[in-house]
Amino acid sequence: MNSPSATKKVEPTKKDNHGPHKESAGGYRELLESFIVALVLAFFFKSFVAEVFVIPTGSMAPTLLGAHKDIRCSECGSQYAAGASLETDQNTGGQTDTIVIGGVCPLCRAQNNLDLRQSADKTVMGDRIVVGKFNYIFSDPQRWDVIVFKYPQDARINYIKRLIGCPNEQILIQHGDIYTRPYIDGTLSDEPYKIARKPANKVETLQQRVFDSEHIPADLVKAGWPNNWQAWPKESSAKWTTKYEEKAWEASVDAEGIPIENVSLLRYFHRFPSPEEWRDIQKGTANLQSVAPYDSTLITDFASYNAMVIAPRDSVYTQNNSISPKYKGGLYPDEALVDSSRYSIGHGGIRSIESEDGNHWVGDLLAEFDVEIKANEQGVLLLELVEKGIRFQCRIKTTDGLASWQLIKNQAPISIWEDVPADQAPEGKTAVRGNGQYRIKIANVDSQLFLWVNGSLVAFNHPTTFDDEKLLTREEQRPFWTPNEPLDAAPVGIGFAQGKLVVKKTKVWRDVYYIAHAMGKHLTDYPMDDDQEQANLIASVVDPDVRRLIEQARRTGATHEQSLLAVLKTVYASPPMWEKTQLFKLRRIKNYTLDKDQFFPLGDNSAASADARSWYTHHVPRELLMGKALVLLWPHSAYMFVPKFGRMGLIR
């Protein structure tokens, strides 16, 4: 934005030999006045209108990035960022003893090892944003706004977070979601908590990648890794055909004459190679015959931004800050570093728990399909998401584009809608009209269903909000699986009736997961900080042989973090355990009460954010609000004066 010019236009005057010094003095005076006016306007603009800030840390990733490494996965080709703000002391601005030497891909989970001798692998400065200071003078901040404020415990420091809780309410963080109820004049309402639902544009802003068919690693295909998308039921009259080749993925089904009741779904089974399997794959020695096509693990809150590979600075650099001649970039740390015994994944430190997967099951999912339809007059496209054993089906008639939602549990329709008559279902008109190519996206986020067709949000005649607590007990707030129905073990599906369908591309995302972090505890929902909490976690592994192995490792020196990761990995990848385990009932919940003029902000990167959960006051007073983050002005890249143009734009 430009401020009005205060420079006065001066007409040339006739010079004489008697006043050159006088004329020169007048010109200098006008120049000085113009400069002073410009300074005043700039000060006014900065103080009351807008100001530019640089994001220092990754607490708002992936919405806004702090100092980071830009990485292109050498296996699947996806682009992602790994946090690098821990290379700088946030108090002094000086270097720390830690450097980032790699990252873990969010899609294929391959470890990408950087070569710090290359300019493309250097650390990139955080995003430069514009903050509007005028926005909250005459109106209150709205939930889900990205706000800038003075840190309540040290007003000299500026913070940026997303506004989650507003004045006069109590906030509950439960299983990754936010719930609220009124708190007015010191009195807590008797009303039950209600889930805080994100609008559609915020849902898409906060979605995080899980799968992308355009990024299939060639090495995985060569090694015999099974396709993540499999037909279900296994035996069906409508046969799916899939192309699963190097850098190529496609699926098709001929469902001519197949009624909607007998539709075969192509389902997503979430799985990825372990770090050990990846190394064997890259060496050409992998034996993946034991990986079954229908094996899967739960989708979690894994964030590649937090899964950076770190090492001590002196394992790469000499004392004069030049790269050691013994350093071999681009290789695994045990091959590249001067001292390979001191590297790890994640932030390090006692409260951090990062690995090649996340800590928390995320059931709120989004999926997108690029499809080509060839149907008769009865053609129906069926899209499905599953959470807690409930199947959320969207059916679109190809003749008139009418879309309707149906909820199914135990093979029978159910009605847990909040504002829909018992004998009806939400319906809406879409742009689907007969044969053609379409991009269709569905979402189940915050107990609300969304549908987009060709990028446009579809409006329904009834709200698509639901309440699963009408049906599920506290013990049933977990993933479900049966031998005849994979349910949460394959939570995304697509099918077709009365025609032919080609699926050309597909993507899967997850929603943000807010951790119910207890101050001074580990950043996880699972209590694990004392011996009894550790015992409860290990007891949740119902397989006695596996449980004994974890107990033995703990007795012989495994840390609390290592024990937790072993438990999660075992339970999440074992669907038959889900019904018997106590693990999901151990998840912590937390509430926070906000009085008048108090605001509760959280970072989008919940596993690596110092926010209201960890402050003594747990809120930001109104007088410390500075403004609203408006524009991502300059997303820095590894190349000077060249921003990442694709990320520029409004901050949502």
Q: Nutshell version of this structure?
A:
This protein has 652 residues and is α+β, with helices and mostly antiparallel strands.
**Parts with pLDDT < 50 across at least 5 consecutive residues:** 1-23
CATH architecture of the domain at 210-273 and 362-510: Sandwich
Overall mean pLDDT score? 89
What is the CATH homologous superfamily assignment of the domain at 210-273 and 362-510? Exo-inulinase, domain 1
Q: Helical region count? A: 8
Secondary structural class: alpha+beta
Number of strands: 33
**Main beta sheet, described?**
14 strands, antiparallel
The level of helicity is 10-25%
Distance between the termini: 20 Å
Q: Quickly name the level 1 CATH class of the domain at 210-273 and 362-510.
A: Mainly Beta
**CATH fold topology of the domain at 210-273 and 362-510:** Jelly Rolls
Large-scale geometry:
globular
Strand content: 25-35%
Gyration radius over CA: 28 Å
